Amino acid sequence: MGGGRWGAAAVRRRLGHSARVRVIRLLLVTSLPWTLALGAFVILSAVVPVTVLAAMGQVVGRVPAAARAGLGSPAGHGLIAALVVSMAAYAVTLVLGPTQTAIASAVKVRLTYAMQDRLVAAVSRPAGIAHLEDAAALDELELAHGQLTAYYPADAPTTLAVVIGNRLSGLVACGVLGVYRWWLGLGMLALWLLVRRPLRKVVYEQAQAFGRTAGLMRRARYLQQLAVKPGTAKESRVFGFGDWLIERYREQWTLGMATAWQMLRRYNIGVTRLGGVVLAGYVAATSVIAYGAYHHQMTLATLATLLPMLVASAEVGDISWNDVALEWQLTALPNLEALESRLDPPRTAVHSRRIELPAGAPEHELRFESVAFRYPGARSDVFTRLDLSIPAGRSTAIVGLNGAGKTTLVKLLTGLHDPTAGRITVDGVDLSTTDAEGWQRRVAVVFQDFVRYPTTAADNVGFGAVEHICDRSAITAAAQRAGARDLVEVLPKGWDTVLSRQYKDGVDLSGGQWQRVALARALMAVDHGARLLALDEPTAWLDVRGEAEFFASFLELTAGLTTVIISHRFSTVRQAERICVLENGEALEIGTHEDLMTQSGRYAQMFSAQASRFDQELRG
To answer: Are residues 229 and 378 in the same domain?
Structure first.
C-alpha cells in the first residue's frame, strides 16, 4: 500500500511539473522578450525583499554608534550608507507591483491570443465534427477558455513567476540564517519543506477535483446563459420557468464545486494541524537567536537582521492564494500539443496519398455499403447495415419516422462524421480515401437547424463560396433563385444590413425569410462548383405559398445536380425522382412515388395518413 501511495504522489508531481513546463514552453514560443522580462522579475522579487530586510537590520544595528559619534563620524557614514541601500531596495519593491501588473497584462494578452489561435486551429482542423460532440473534448475546451472559473490559464505564467519568486526569496532568507548558524538555516528550510508538502497536495487535489467536474460546471454555465440570453428569455418569461433555471444553475454549480469545497475544508484542517509544528519551529529558532543575543554572541545588527529573516523564510513553504490560483490555472491549461496531436494525428503512408476525385464527381452514384454508425457515447446504432444507392444528377428523397437517421445520413454524406463500419463511395471510390475538405467543397447543404449568422445579409449568402464573398452580382443571383432578393433589398441598408438586433441598426428576419437566405447560401455554393445539394427540411419555415413557389422552380434549380431531400411534407417528397424510406437503421423501401404507392407499404401508409389529415383540415 505504501508503494502505491508514493507512486501516486510521484505521478502527481510529474503532472504538476509537466504543466509548469508547458507554461514556460508556451511563453517562450509566444514571446522571448517577455519571457526574459518575467525572468528578471522573478530574480528581483526573490532578492530585493530580502535585501530590504537585511539593509534595515544594518540600519537598526548602526543607530546606537551613529548616535554616540554623530553622523559625520565613520559610524554615521555607515548608517547613512545602510539607509541609502535600504531606501533604494525599498523603492525597487514599490516598482515591482506595477511592473508585475504591466508584465502580466502584456503576457496575458499575447498568451491568450496564441492559445486561442492554436485551440481554434486545432478544433477546426478535422473535416468532421465528432470531436465537437464529445463531452470530454467540450469540457477541455471550456476549461481552456477559462469560462468555468475566474482562473484563466493565460494568467499562469505571471502567477508561476510570483510563486517561484516567493520560493527563491524564502531560500535566500534561509541562506541568510545559515550564515549565522548553518544548521539554523537548514533547519528552517527543512521545516517549511515539511509543511509545504501536505498542503500543496491538498491544493493540487482540489484543483484536479474541479477539473473532473467540468461537465457539471459547463452545464451550470449553460443554464446561466439560458437565463440571460434573449432567445430563451422569451419563453422563460412567458412560461415562467426563469426561477427554475436559476435554481437548476445553483444546483449544478454547487454540485460542481462540492468536491473542491471538501478539499478546501481539508486544507483548512491541515493548516490548523501544521500550525503547531510551525509554532514549535519558530519558538526553537527564536530561542536560538535570543540565546545568542543574551550572551552577546551577536551584534544588534545581526539580531535585527535574523528576526525578520525567520518570517521571510516562510516563503519557502507558505501556501498563498497565488499557489491556489496557479493550480487552478494549470488545471485549465490545455495540453495543446496533445490536443493538436489527437485532432490531427500523423497520417500513415497509405492515407497520405489521398485520391483526387474528378472535377465532375459524382458522375455515376453515391453508395452506402453496409454502413453502420453510432454517435459517441450513444447506447445504440443509428444505422446497422445501410445499403443505399444515390444516382448522380437526380433527386433522391429520404423519408422516415423521427429518429430514423435522416439527418445523420446527410452528416455522413457530407463527411461530418465517419461510419462506424462499412463505407461510403463516390463513383466507386471510398470517401475515406479522398481529401475530406476537398469533398466538402463539392457539397452544398441546408440543415434543418441552419445557422443564422449575426453579420451582413451579403455575408450570410456569400459564405456559401467564401472566396467569392465580394462578388455582389453572384450573391444577388443566388438570392434571386432562392426567393430572397426582394426581402433583402427592402432592408434599411440592403445587402449591408446586419441580420441581428443585437447590433446597431441590425434587423432580424422571420423564420421563413431566414430559410430563404440559407437556401441562397447553398445555391451560392452550387454556382461555384458544388455538385451535391442536400436539403434537410428545406421548406419547414416557409408558408404554403412559399413552399409552392420554391418547388415550382425546384427542378430548374437542381437540374444536373445530385440532390438529396429530407422532408416530412409529402408534397415535397413526391416530386423527387427516387424515394427512400429509412426504418430501423436500414433502407426499407426505394422507388418512385408511383411505385411505392403501388406497393402499399410503409411509404404508402405514411403518405395516405398525411393526405387524410390534410383533407380533414380542409373540410374542417
So the answer is: no
What average pLDDT does the chain have? Answer: 82
Q: Which range marks the domain in which residue 295 is found?
A: 11-343
Does residue 368 sit in helix, strand or coil? strand
Residue 495 three-state SS: helix
Whether 603 and 483 share a structural domain: no
- Supply the angle between the helices 242-294 and 300-312 in degrees, to the nearest 10: 160
Written in H, E and C, the secondary structure of 290-321 is HHHHHCCCCCHHHHHHHHHHHHHHHHHCCCCH
pLDDT tens string 537-572: 877 776 666 666 666 677 677 777 899 988 877 777
Q: pTM for the whole thing?
A: 0.69
One-letter amino acid identity for 155? D
- End-of-domain residue from the set 309, 343, 377: 343
Q: Between β-strands 421-426 and 365-373, what pairing exists: parallel, antiparallel or unpaired?
A: antiparallel
In this predicted model, what pLDDT tens digit does every residue of 472-494 receive, in sequence order? Answer: 999 999 999 888 899 998 999 99
CATH number at residue 368: 3.40.50.300
Task: Report d(CA 301, CA 165) in Å as an integer.
Answer: 26
User: Measured between alpha carbons, how far is 213 from 250 in angstroms, rounded to an integer?
Assistant: 15
Do 367 and 331 reside in the same domain of the chain? no
Regarding whether 547 and 495 lie in a shared domain, the answer is: no
Strands 365-373 and 383-391: antiparallel
Amino acid at position 337, single letter: E
Longest dimension (CA), the chain: 122
Read off the C-alpha cell for 557.
434549380
- Of 529, 552, 582, the residue that ends a domain is 529
Give residue 595's pLDDT.
Answer: 92
Higher local confidence (pLDDT), 573 or 406: 406
Q: Any idea what the Cα angle at residue 175 is, between residues 173 and 181, rounded to 5°?
A: 110
Q: Could you tell me which of 413, 404, 405 has the C-alpha nearest to residue 368?
A: 413
Q: Are residues 436 and 458 in the same domain?
A: no
The rounded distance, in Å, linking the Cα atoms of 478 and 492 is 21
Would 381 be classed as within a structural domain? yes
**Per-residue cell: 306:** 535574523
pLDDT for 15 equals 44
> Residue 252: pLDDT band by 50, 70, 90 thresholds?
confident
**CATH number for the domain including 224?**
1.20.1560.10
One domain, residues 522 and 552: no
Could you give the strand order of the β-sheet that contains 429-430, starting from the edge strand earlier in sequence? 383-391, 365-373, 421-426, 429-430
